[in-house]
Amino acid sequence: MSQSESGPDRPGKRLRKREAIATEQTLDTSGTDSLLPTSDPFADRYGGTGWRRETGDSVAHGVAVRSEIAANDSDSLWRALVEHRLLTRLAGPLAGECFADVLAQWEEHLSALAPRSDWEQAAVVPRPSRDPAGSAELLRHAFAPVRVLAVRPADRLAAPGPATQPGVRIRPAEPADLDTAVALSLRLQRYDAQFGLVTLRPNVEGLLREALSEELRCGEPTVWLAELYGRPLGLLRIQFPPGTAWISPFVAVDRVGYVASLHVDEAARSSGVGGALAAHAHQLFDEAGVEAALLHHALPNPTSTPFWYAQGYRPLWTYWYRRPAVR
Ligand SMILES: CC(C)(COP(=O)(O)OP(=O)(O)OC[C@H]1O[C@@H](n2cnc3c(N)ncnc32)[C@H](O)[C@@H]1OP(=O)(O)O)[C@@H](O)C(=O)NCCC(=O)NCCS
């Protein structure tokens, strides 16, 4: 469920562009969402080809960027190797109409750039979840809202879920638990791959082992196991500040916690184990002075979507996908 927010790294161009489009980078959050940042989290990626359409006081601005990673990069587990993103800013009552023009321009650009019918090429349009402008236009271009970055403010109250089964114990995973953590993560990876963004690479086990072995060796516990009388049945992976600096620009608070993974084995689901692990994460975040927790999840996932929203999360950014990018 975690994913990178990495983009093309072009420091030189980045600085020049920042000045040039200073006003474009300021998000108008007033009408949409108080938890959105006031400056555009994608601003450092403005460096690609851009289009702008205005009608009266409505405007659509889009910038196309391309990011590519290698198949042996751990981020390759969560995405296509090549992502073509359209970064947008829409405003005004006719924003959708303006956006339709920008999308048409981007399609032309994409068809010259992306090979056809290649599963490793995805087209992605991130949108503030509470700003519905442009949704119909995206659907017309065969995009679907597939991934969400969800947020839970620290003071959010959630109704209690199912009572945890007696005998369940939550404990930090240790280096000796590496095989267990890899096995549980693999099951999550296989489940999540059904929704089309998580990609099962031939080296998936090696990549997970490498990442988890590093996490298990770091001082602060970030990997937790739920056990029933000693039998592991749930896994939680979390990140604390400053390790969440990669994702914190996407929300309007300073101290951010990130839930990187939560998995409960199928036979143990719906008996409170997931809720107990989530409550544990929130408790640790509270102790660390976290102001908001973030996580990515696949919208069509029938277990995670209702679960997270019952835990007090709600959508902040919605990622519209088309994969392959060009048919
Ligand atoms: C999502 C997942 C971790 C939940 O674990 P779980 O142990 O089943 O969770 P719980 O038993 O605590 O809660 C599940 C049920 O209680 C409900 N629930 C949980 N908290 C609730 C609350 N505060 N109020 C009301 N209902 C609540 C859930 O909606 C769900 O309902 P259901 O059984 O009718 O479907 C588990 O289903 C799973 O591993 N899924 C596959 C992997 C996955 O998708 N992981 C998350 C990736 S983002």
From TrEMBL:
- Keywords for this protein: Acyltransferase, Transferase
CDD domains listed in its UniProt record: NAT_SF
Task: Tell me yes or no: is Metal-binding among this UniProt entry's keywords.
Answer: no
Q: Which residues form the N-acetyltransferase domain?
A: 168-327
Family matches, as Pfam families: Acetyltransf_1 (PF00583)
Gene3D superfamilies per record: 3.40.630.30
Spans annotated as Disordered: 1-41
Q: Which InterPro entries match?
A: Acyl_CoA_acyltransferase (IPR016181), Bact_Acetyltransf (IPR050832), GNAT_dom (IPR000182)
PROSITE patterns referenced in this protein's UniProt entry, alphabetically: GNAT (PS51186)
List all Polar residues biased stretches.
23-37
Protein name, as recorded: GNAT family N-acetyltransferase
